[in-house]
Design goal:
A hairpin with a 4-residue loop joins strand 2 and strand 3. A four-stranded antiparallel sheet has the order 3-2-1-4, with no helix packed on it. Helix content is 14%, strand content 27%. The protein is globular, with a radius of gyration of 12 Å. The chain contains two helices and four strands, in the order βββαβα. It is α+β, with helices and mostly antiparallel strands. The chain has one domain: OB fold (Dihydrolipoamide Acetyltransferase, E2P), CATH 2.40.50.
Length: 73
Amino acid sequence: MKHPIVGYHLDEENHWVARLACGHFQHVRHDPPWTNRPWVTSPDGRQAKLGLMLDCKKCDRSEALDFEVRAET
């Protein structure tokens, strides 16, 4: 199931993690040649990808949320 990126944070190993609108986290590593995401290495690149739709495997497996999703007012 696809959901947009709504923010980012660094994990304990300094890898970037996307916060998805569904309430799940997903790593967004730049790890060539397996994963090519050079945009994740700069603040401007990450900002430009807010709203990018990512496939959330946690939603597909009906896993518990990683964070509370707050409705915008």
